[in-house]
Write a structure and sequence with these properties.
By secondary structure, the chain is α/β, with parallel strands linked by helices. The protein has helices at 2-7, 35-44, 64-70, 98-101, 151-160, 190-202, 219-230, 308-325, 331-340, 361-366, 381-384; strands at 20-29, 48-51, 56-60, 73-80, 87-91, 115-120, 136-138, 176-181, 207-210, 234-238, 259-264, 282-285, 289-292, 302-306, 404-412, 419-425, 430-435, 439-445, 457-458, 468-472, 479-487, 493-503.
Length: 506
Amino acid sequence: MDTLNSLLPLLASLLALAAPAPDTALVQIDPAHMRDAAAPLLRRAGGTEIGPELRIWRVPAAAVPALKRTGIVSFSEHERLLKSTAIPTDPLVDEQWWRASVGADKASPPGPGKPVTIVDSGLDVSHPEFASRPNTTLLNNQTVRSEDDDHGTEVSSVIAAPENGIGLVGIYPLADLRSWDASPNGFLSDGSAIQGILEAARRGPGLINLSFGGPIDDRLLEEAILAAIRGGSVVVAASGNEGIQGSPESFPADYAHVLTVGATDETDAVADFSTTSPWLDLVAPGVEIPVAEPTFNVPAGFVKASGTSFSAPMVAGAGAWVWTVRPELDGSQIFEIMRRSARDLGGAGWDTESGYGLLDIPAALSRPAPVRDPFEPNDDADQIEPGRMFTGGMPPLTTAKRGAATLNARLDRHEDPHDFYRVHVPPGRRVFARTSGPVDLRIYRRSQRPLRRSPVATSAHAGTVAEHASYTNTGTRPVYVYVEVRPGRQVSDTPYTLRITTAAPR
């Protein structure tokens, strides 16, 4: 207990394993077993389905060994507690210095449009900022009972505190704000966070803010995030507050496809506590930020707080603002615009301390639309094969009736390091893959297991110039192959065009 207590004051106990949930586990059902057949066993064991898209159930921990013996469980883990990324500081002073830093004072935010979902502790809807706020949706019952239940209200106020003459104003005051309470029992847990992410995704594309994280790589949490991205949403995560402790890995911030946000101070310098990372995309103010506080904690209703917990929702709110003004864009384009439009800090270009730079709303509103990046996430075969990670998988680029396809996409060595595509190859035909960008091409035979075998064809120059690779189906039956595209050796990110044709071999 002394060891645990000594860890609590650390600036970034993100997703801290403060203690496992006392008696629950998360299990994922093997896709080989039909849901209707497995469900009665799980319910008899005291289980509750929390993520049907990903076959995830919450069950009593004691039931896991018996469930594994039935053969229906492909993966299990103890349910863990999560830790927010906030550092409480002094009472509120009537100033919001951050608005000028990110250009929020140079543009007028729109009315409600693309939603922003907070997956956090509950929102205090009795607070003066939220008691009569329109466009506020509670996705589940909100519990705000203890001192640790203040975080969701704080984060929500950074995004959406209205212009009502009370307290502060959020970055997008009229935002369509949605709140999922991931701490119904007084603590954030990964199971409850997974439920919130999937519920937000079910309601259509939007921004999802995750102001928590930590050193534990959580497979089921990552799959929920990838499912939300597959559904068209943009997931924003706080980078963490362990810069002073050497910036250890932090999840979900260090997952690919997540818009990862660090913190700056009033001088636009990166905060010393802000976790640096190869996955960092941009930074936003996170020091001495005025926030709404449940009044049972602080009668005045407002405090100042610091942490990447408050930088992330600024980016999430700004992203919803930009997407509402530019509804013709998709989630992959909003993701790219928000980081590429950032105002560069320090040395030229991207770096692990500030990513592409400081959030810049006017620049994001006017930046030209980048190439769409379809079919994400498609980083490996499990993400595109039907019945594996995603029930529907990804349709093949070619079929028995359609022997050619062309698409445009993008790669990024950290955020999107691989693109996999399924290709149908008739018997006796050759598939020919060509690219227009500096990428590396590989072709693999289709596998029923996670892909570990060597490619059957590779491009000749390993991504230094436009590439091509081919494979001939010498069998008597049609087959599927995987075409993989990855950044070339000399580039970290690039758009590309992929052309696939199947034809008789010459």
